[in-house]
Amino acid sequence: MASLVNIIGNSHVEKSCKIQFITSFRQALKDKDSLKFHELILYEKYQQDPLTTHFISKLLSDFPPTLNAIELYENNGFLEGQVNRLKTIKRMLYGRASFPLLRLRILYQP
User: Fold this and answer.
1) If 0-12 CB within 10 Å is exposed, 13-18 middle and 19+ buried, where does residue 81 land?
2) What is the pLDDT of residue 97?
3) What separation in angstroms does the CA of 46 have from each of 42, 74, 82, 94, 103?
4) What is the DSSP string of 93-107?
5) At what angle do helices 50-61 and 34-45 cross, to 10 degrees?
6) Long-range Cβ contacts of 103-108 (<8 Å, 24+ apart)
7) What is the pLDDT at residue 69?
8) Which tens digits make up the pLDDT trace of 37-94?
9) CA triplet 36, 4, 41: central angle to 5 degrees?
10) Could you tell me the sign of the dihedral formed by the alpha carbons of 8, 14, 17, 22, in that order?
11) CA–CA separation, 66 vs 34, rounded Å?
12) Are 19 and 41 contained in the same domain?
């Protein structure tokens, strides 16, 4: 895969810039390097490429939560999993069960 990316990058200069941006973006997210991420966003904000400028403008509209996701270890994955579990149980029991049965299903821990 990397050799294919290198071949495309070497043959098309404009695609090479996009590939470099994507690679740097992914690396900054993987390393949780908020400074590199911030510099990359500011640099790409003033480029003339319509695809990256649109992506950056959408990212900047919700920038503080994005930066928090990079900098902080905490997340709400556990809570989202419980909400998903609750919705699945409610969907299964819709129209067939009373509240006591729903309560037992939700409180049951296998």
Assistant:
1) exposed
2) 72
3) 7, 32, 42, 52, 55
4) HTTT--HHHHHHHHH
5) 130
6) none
7) 83
8) 888 888 888 887 777 888 888 888 988 888 888 888 877 788 888 889 888 888 887 8
9) 20
10) negative
11) 10
12) yes
pLDDT for res 76: 78
Domain co-membership, 82 together with 38: no
Identity of residue 66:
T
Neighbours of 70 (CB within 10 A): 16
Per-residue CA distances from 55 to 2, 3, 22, 70, 89 (Å): 24, 26, 11, 18, 37
Clarify whether residues 43 and 83 are in a common domain: no
Q: Quick one: 67 and 81 in the same domain?
A: no
Number of domains in the chain: 2
- Residue with tokens 């990212």, as numbered in its chain: 59
**Would you state the structure tokens that stand for residue 73, as one six-digit string?**
């270890």
Tokens, residue 14: 């404009």
